[in-house]
């Protein structure tokens, strides 16, 4: 019997994801037994600061990558949106699972929808991307940071610390938490972040057997779309301290498949917003993310990003990994 070890964060959602992948692998490869190596990441430990001030997305992946590089795990399961565009030497992001519902959702115990919120209502989110899009539509609202795991965030909402909060739909769905919230509204006008609602499978690059197993989990369309998104983020130079949204999708136009990618960049207060989009046939989409980034750079995206970070953290400087 072969053994394969998955490195995973110890949060409820990360464990759901890891057990989901464990089940899929053991079903497809009955000769393989899968064990979990649970890690509490720095991003899960530091809950008193906005994520971007403690090194950002890398704090959810670094410890898992360290375990793989040390020989204590064969692969790691990540929420793809948490995976930086830089992958350490010796590791490889080789498979992306089929993307699920990418929606952000409005949650409240008092108000039925975003439009029902009164002027000055307090909305919880730590995401600068969500803050930007929310305040673009409702500049009268007050946005307050919201950290903690999903259950902690929902508890804070129930306690009345916020009039509403905004979270990713897919995590709530996977943990069966939507039934306990009186008012739920999908925010269809929000553009998701890079990699939303897909799982990234990162492996030790030298292990061909693990690559074979991981590739059985890969969805080609999702892999292409998320690569376009990740290329865009890499070229534009946007980290988690930047209010950036980007989303690629594949649509059928007659007999042809087209890849569409849209993005927005702006200030976290919902001003100075830059919207752009591009499309290309499926077989010409490899450089679509780069092209969209260059198009936005020509229209001043780099200046917007630089100023956005200054505005978001004018009184504090991020710690770096």
In words, what does this structure look like?
With 321 residues, this protein is an alpha/beta fold. The chain has 3 domains: 2-97 and 198-218, D-Maltodextrin-Binding Protein, domain 2, CATH 3.40.190; 104-186, Periplasmic binding protein-like II (D-Maltodextrin-Binding Protein, domain 2), CATH 3.40.190; 227-312, 2-Layer Sandwich (Double Stranded RNA Binding Domain), CATH 3.30.160.40. The chain has 10 helices and 13 strands. α8 packs parallel to α9 (288-298). The model is unreliable at 315-321 (pLDDT under 50).
In short, what is this structure?
The protein is of the alpha/beta class and 321 residues long. It folds into 3 domains: 2-97 and 198-218, 3-Layer(aba) Sandwich (D-Maltodextrin-Binding Protein, domain 2), CATH 3.40.190; 104-186, 3-Layer(aba) Sandwich (D-Maltodextrin-Binding Protein, domain 2), CATH 3.40.190; 227-312, 2-Layer Sandwich (Double Stranded RNA Binding Domain), CATH 3.30.160. It has 10 helices and 13 strands.
Features:
single chain, 321 residues, alpha/beta, D-Maltodextrin-Binding Protein, domain 2, Double Stranded RNA Binding Domain, 5-stranded mixed beta sheet, 32% helix, globular
Any chance you could write out the topology, listing elements then pairs?
Layout: E1 2-9, H1 12-28, E2 32-39, H2 42-45, H3 62-69, E3 75-79, E4 91-96, E5 104-108, E6 122-124, H4 128-137, E7 142-144, H5 150-158, E8 164-168, H6 169-174, E9 183-186, E10 199-204, H7 208-215, H8 220-236, E11 244-253, E12 256-265, E13 274-281, H9 288-298, H10 301-312
Parallel strand pairs: 1-2, 1-3, 6-7, 6-8
Antiparallel strand pairs: 3-10, 4-10, 5-8, 5-9, 11-12, 12-13
Helix pairs in contact: 8-9
